[in-house]
Amino acid sequence: MSSTAKERQQPDRLLLFTTVALCAGGLVMVTSASVAFAYTQHQSAFYYAERQAAWMLIGFVALFVLGRLDYRRIRPLAPAGAIAAALLMLLVLVPHLGVSVNGARRWFDAGPLGTFQPSELGKLAFSVFIAHWIDRNSQRMGDFQHVFVPFVAMLAGILVLLMLERDLGTAIVTVGIFLSAYWAGGGRLRHIILLAGGLGLAFIAVTLLEPYRMGRLTSFRNPWADPLGAGFQATQSLYGLASGGLFGVGIGHSIEKYGWLPEAHTDFIFAIVGEETGLIGTTLVMLGFLVFGIRGYRATLRAPDRFGMALAASITTWVTFEALLNMATVTNTLPITGVPLPFFSYGGTALATTLAGVGILLSIARHGSGSALRNNRRSDATFDRWRRDRRAPVSGARRRASVSR
């Protein structure tokens, strides 16, 4: 094997290191944030930490297996995986099969490992499927009736399932996954704007129809108007972040985790990160996700085919968009949506599935190397021309290129 080929087959070490570092920090913070709640609920201070570690081990096994596997070998499984995920999301709604928590039915009982959430598995399954579907329709990506309408119908079906599960946060992330894959696969910008506008109106309607979501929206505007009621979670989150100062109060010394901040070890763990590690710690976490996004989108641009490009874009958007939403929620920049912080929030299914997705992303990065590889693969003039236009450094280059087609 030539030196160029060997270099091409090397994994993205920076992406892998960033993932490992985020997971290590996440396990430490889950252990710290959950000790009080775990002891009161299960008489074991490390109840949640032990299960998070078990799911992390499963996730890293999946990461290394998928990272060494050619990502194109999972493509034949895309339709079956999407159907299986959708069926599981339906079954979780059946009484006595799904587990209901706080009025939402999203989980199965996984015994010693806690719970299993099908919608988290769906993020990965649908990412693979939509990339597969986009590649199959690559020659008609600008067709409104034969491509865009079926694309919207598939997305709408998934969103309906998520709304039945009362999972608005996952619905928003799923929209990001689908739109990023559609854009990376060559979809028209005006179609994306049209869909985004329609979904925005739909989410507003869903919010207005659900009293608890309307309450969240109202308290978001001024959480201190009702600090012991609707604004309690937001105000306690901000107190936690503010009390950390520059360097934090120290790992394990949080006050908010002792019953003051609800969901301290799950959706609001970033507030505990801020309280215990301060501005330094939260900045490092944000830098970690920034590096992850840069390396992920780098793999997207260097992917050897359209399937790889759409899949890498959807996985990268899934992780970084979810992290951005979570941090915005914890800092009261956005209303509470119930989105976890990837690699940090307690949740075994989410952690293992996200690590499996990172494994696929590493495989795409390992097989992509830019022009040298593209010259050796099957010619795809339309795809190569689209990629050049999307990467054009001059603002008018893409417009001039589209006129010349």
Features:
405 residues; mainly alpha; 3-stranded antiparallel sheet; 16 helices; 3% strand; disordered N terminus
Overview of the molecule:
The protein is 68% helix and 3% strand. With 405 residues, it is an all-alpha fold. It has helices at residues 3-8, 13-42, 47-68, 78-91, 118-136, 144-164, 168-184, 189-209, 211-221, 232-243, 269-301, 306-330, 348-367, 371-376, 381-390, 397-404; strands at residues 99-101, 104-109, 115-116. The protein has 16 helices and three strands. A hairpin with a 5-residue loop joins strand 2 and strand 3 (115-116). The chain folds into two domains: 3-369, no CATH class; 370-405, no CATH class. Helix 4 runs antiparallel to helix 5. A three-stranded antiparallel β-sheet has the order 1-2-3, with no helix packed on it.
Strand order of the largest sheet: 1-2-3
Large-scale geometry: globular
What structural class should be given to the helix and strand makeup?
mainly alpha
- Oligomer status: single chain
Unreliable runs: 1-7, 371-383, 390-405
> What share of residues is helical?
55-70%
Could you say how many structural domains there are in total?
Answer: 2
State the end-to-end distance.
39 Å
Using only CA atoms, what is the Rg?
22 Å
